[in-house]
Amino acid sequence: MSESTLVVRRTLSDDWSELRDIRLEALRDTPDAFGSTYEEALAFSDDEWRTFAQKRCFYLAERDARVVGMISGGLNDAHPGTHWMYGMFVTPLERGTGTAQRLVSEVDDWARGEGASELFLHVGSTVARARAFYLKLGFEPTGETFVMHRNAAITLITMKRSLVES
Fold this sequence. Notes:
Elements: E1 6-10, H1 16-29, H2 38-42, H3 46-55, E2 57-63, E3 66-75, E4 83-90, H4 99-113, E5 118-124, H5 128-136, E6 140-148, E7 151-162
Antiparallel strand pairs: 1-2, 2-3, 3-4, 5-7, 6-7
Helix pairs in contact: 1-3
């Protein structure tokens, strides 16, 4: 039996259908973790998905050529000059394998390459597994919280971690 291989790579426009499929899986699996809904994502055209894959900073994790996770990095207009991690998801069968850490590492590298010394994220109050994972990776709550725009029952917690090696 051969050992499986995990590859994490930045998306290109040709990756649009894989990005769409993993994003739709994420929105079905853990809807409270994302700012958009399954229905909203399902309504995007193929051209919109191509644009997302090409122009946004998305990474896909693939195990044996099958997409098993995603993440993106970006900026946040509400916090000028900061770098953020968005849209983290690992398919249930892949959880606990190190894939999530590899995805976060890619966004860390992207943010460092952009000159960032910290990485920020928002995590939903109802997604305890994600909060515990981020704490384990050294993210700490900043004290900023706010209500999710699409669901007032969910509080978003802002977390950050230093990207500076100590």
